[in-house]
Amino acid sequence: MKDEEKDTGRIEAFSDGVFAIAITLLALELKIPHTVEGGEEGLVRALVSQWPSYLSFVTSFCTILIMWGNHHEMFRHVRRVNTGFMVSNGFLLMLVTVVPFTTALISDYLNKVGAVVACAVYGGVFVLISIAYNLLWYAAAKDRALLRSGVPEQVIRKFTRNYRIGFPLYLLATVAAFVSPFVTIGICTALWVFWAFTMRRGEAGIHSS
Fold first, then answer.
1. What's the mean pLDDT in 60-72?
2. What is the pLDDT of residue 200?
3. How many domains does the chain have?
4. Which range of residues forms the domain containing residue 187?
5. What is the pTM of this model?
6. 55 near 118, Cβ under 8 Å?
């Protein structure tokens, strides 16, 4: 068991660091208003006017947090890695580092002319992240090559089902930007709530099996 854990230790530690940096960078979009006119009321208005930054920050923070949780949960069942798995994980981490950029787009353009494009890019990155998660899980679960011995079949089916659901829904969120940018934000928010719920329920099922 110790050898199995050590085989994935370095890639887990590196991945955790990338997730931590990405989630921290989100806070850079929370700007302090300067040269505000109108005293305290002016400052309040300036803070309220930055609501797109708050909305995008909360959505992206929770999404990255849930992605990290799912990544951690996946690695609980992985005993070793190979080249394909490492490449897939690297592809996923590259996309995770892009989330602060797409969050900045939302912050700057959600209430401007470029809102449609900004939200389409935001959703599109999550489409690619969904693909990366599917590739990563496929590399681990194919013929159980990288999984720990004794992983229940129901757990494998749960991960496979959940990751497959993500792609069409994030694609829908991307296309929905051309209908209303707020629909894109709404779908992305609903999805991180869904992932949080299924991850929690999955943990309960695993511990009871």
1. 92
2. 59
3. 1
4. 2-208
5. 0.85
6. no
